[in-house]
Amino acid sequence: MVLPTAREAILKKNNGPRNPWGEDIERVHFRTGTIGKTLNVKIFVPGRYEPPVNFTRHPSDSLETLKVTTGVKNDVFSFAVHRESTGGCIFDTSIGGLIFSDKFIQLATYLPSEAMYGLGENVHPTLKHDFTGYRTWALFARDEFPVSSTLRTINLYGMHAFYLMLEPDGNAHGVFILNSNAQEFTTAPGPALIYRTIGGNLDLYFFPGPTSEEVIQQYHAFIGTPTLPAYWAFGFQLSRYGYKDLNEMMEKVDRNINAGIPLETTVADIEYMDRYKDFTVGKHWKDLPKYIRWLQREGRRAILIWDPAIQVDDAAFERALKMDARFIEWERYDQVMRSIQDQYPLVKDTKIMLGVVWPDRHIAFPDFLDENTRKWWIEEFIRFWKEVPFDGIWIDMNEPANFGTNEEKPWYFENPDHPNIPTLHCPVEGPDSSWDMPPYKTHNVWLYGKDAILATKTLCMLALQANDTQRFYNVKGLYGLHEAEVTLAAQYAATNRRGAVVSRSTFASAGRYAGHWLGDNSANWEDLQTSVIGAQEFNMFGIPYVGSDICGFFGDATEELCLRWQQMGAFHTFMRNHNAKGQAPQDPAKWPSVAEAAKKATLFRYHYLPYLYSVFFVVSMNGGTVIRPVFFEFWMDKETHNLGHQFLWGSSMMIAPVLHKGATTVDAYLPDDVWYSLYDHKYGHLVSPGYSTFPAPWTSLIPVFVRGGSILPRQKPEMTTTASRKNPFELLIAPHYSEGGYGSADGFLFWDDGETIIHSFASHNYFEWSFKFYCDTQHATLFIRTDRHAEDLKIPTLDTLEIFNYKYKPNLDSFTLNGAKITVKHSTTPTDRQSCTFKISKRRMIDISTAHTYTLSWTHATA
Q1: pLDDT for the residue 739
Q2: Strands (E), 522-657
């Protein structure tokens, strides 16, 4: 893609040192251009591999402009990026080290500060990167579970070469490198950053901000804004791997419902299948369709798992071949492992590359870059949904993961549930080995020992996709993205509802199609802590529907750890309790204390789901973060720059979870603003900014605060979101008072039917309201404006207002709505009086579905 504003030059190889990782390319192109205010700098060779991604590439908007300068010193070329308004340099490659060869490319830069965030998918112990030493982070999609108990810079399931940086003056910018090959980043003192990749080009995009949230919105304008899941997808999900049959799953669901825990969705892992084969149901799960229909009648939902691996002697594979679907293949027939291939008549005369995953027999991986494959995949889901009416889709093992590559005795030889079938072997000698054994293997190989290759845990890098036009070496990192894209299309086609798709492997723009869980974590306190950071990072990456396996996947969770994880997990957008086969049960109803904590935390979540859903709605339209780092809102406060263990919902709600064993308090930091307690401890009271210690016993919510100047929409919670959505709306008003006693607050609410597919927000049927509240010594007024009106959409009325820190005595006989007198009910408690909380209600007080504006006013009694 050549930008209309592009400027281009040719760079010629100098007489510098010899490149130890291949012959340098003699002539490379240097091009700059813009997409709106997004700056593109590209160093490339025409005709080289470009990632096949479907980014929206919308022009960004900003008051700021970035400019590029170039220079040559001592026969070395460099470029720098400056912020035009301040002259500050945000990227400076005069540090040297630019190398461009076929399978080794390097670029290094000085950075303006150490306040760098993002790059992944890795486990980061802190939100802000550490530049005190040299540390190299690997990026390459891999079936690798996170480990937080020790520092490991290994690559995990996805690839997101994006970082955000705070500059010394508080301005923020972002940088994205569009490359899907195995790559790595080294953070170094200086501060400096060194980037290396082993294919493609250097294709950099700079986003000028100047605020952090604007940077993220500009990045999302380029890659595509996130999909909005169905409303029910924000409910609590219960899962585990290892149910022996449907009855056991039903028993666990029942005991949690009976414990009074709001439970929205039941999730089935691979055991529901017939011997782990996609699009089948096992004999111990034959009543699964009947059970799902019962759940749906009760207002609940079901999500099922699928892996991409298709057993090559199964009916689904045969249907694929009849539709001319393609699978990942060897490059030549002489590379095919005939001893395996000849066992299966359907693939005997093909180049399809066979691997091993969960099914008993060998499998093949669909090529989602092929149009016929995409059609077949969609048809399979339509066909299966007619038998098993699932509500959402969970896609796993899509790095893609393959068992035992190049191993003589893979792990499953010791597994009684898996036959000892031979593994895939990739060439590690001779000319065909150059793809798995490139000159520079990157930390994606070196971190895994001397026998590791790029194909470890996956397919051979020499494989081909897209009708033999794309090398797996280049496109492997995109596999989960392409599967997510077609799977969302399958979700829509099969169910005719929005639903939700959750994917393990992701790449930039995957949030347009799916959410993400943070992988197969462990039941320890360190993984609880890093999951708080991981969720914030994936919001930056454009995947705001994100969460961790609550209580941990591997290992046996303790009562205390599970209780604290249920409390924290209630504030992640994707909320699921899930653990591994063979581990002790950890559903919250296992322990009375955890059941009570989960009930309280989930009811709080459901109470404020209208606010959370509205924030997500805005982010889906405009880009941005739902789970927001604190420094996004308070960037001039350096105390927030590494405050990774607290986070915000949008701009208005602060969460400070309990993350340490034995803790019954939380040491939290509230930036200099007006804050009110929103949890058990002094609910409604003003809270002083700065560092404080807040009580957090097991029986309480974790500390939650609302920011002054905010209006939060909410509803009385029920056991399901379906029931909650029928309750009247409420508004929590948290005023910010200026000198002279003038109080104000504002907020918003977006509301649709929660499940209709959104093809375009321009044509989507939804309501949008804005709220503004003002009060002074004489009177108070709530203005409600309908900014968008939906057709034929039944909505609840607004029945309740709760106002914190209300400094005046209202005249209860003075209430008027649009000039007409109304009678309201005033309720107060001793706690309300202590916190100056004022609460009024009236059945069907305001029908906000009819008029364009509403004005609720009242006066204050004189002393």
Answers
A1: 86
A2: 546-547, 549-550, 576-577, 627-628, 647-649, 653-655
